Amino acid sequence: MLSLFACLRNLGLPTFFVTLTSAELTRWTFHLGAILKQQSDHCSGENIMNMDYKDKCEVLKSNPVTAVQMFYHRVDLFFKLMLQGPAHPLGKIKDYFYRVEFQARGAPHVHFLFWIEEVPRFGTYSNEQVISFMDRYVSGTNECEDPELNELVKNVQSHSSNNSASCRKGKTKKKC
Hints:
By secondary structure, the chain is of the alpha+beta class. The chain has helices at 2-11, 29-38, 45-49, 53-62, 64-83, 127-137, 147-156, 164-167, and strands at 16-21, 93-102, 108-116. Helix content is 45%, strand content 14%.
């Protein structure tokens, strides 16, 4: 935690907060196939895709070390090849801080704070410059024209009724 406070003192407020989760591990046939192969159970990608969610979870729980290593590998590649790659989708990263956490079910996720070069700061730059920067990187929509993408977003970026207990922390009756 001391390094985070040092970043805040020296760099100011971060530009972006990003969470990467392993919630999609049950969708990653390569990961499930690797674990099954370690157990001498050769399943095709099609067979894995036809497994129900509970069976996929059992495969992951049977070898949590491999599951977490594969998650870390994906996060590392995403960070190096995408975020720090030549396209700079978030802008050029000046510095970053991350913390790995594990959900109650044991699934890892990573919280990142990113400091981006040449960011127009609120109160220092004009409102138009700040708004222009935000509009460039931040967007939101309920639907797009691609039905397959809509279904994917609905499945991995929305809380399901199974998660509703975590949405009602603090004894509120509100539901996500």
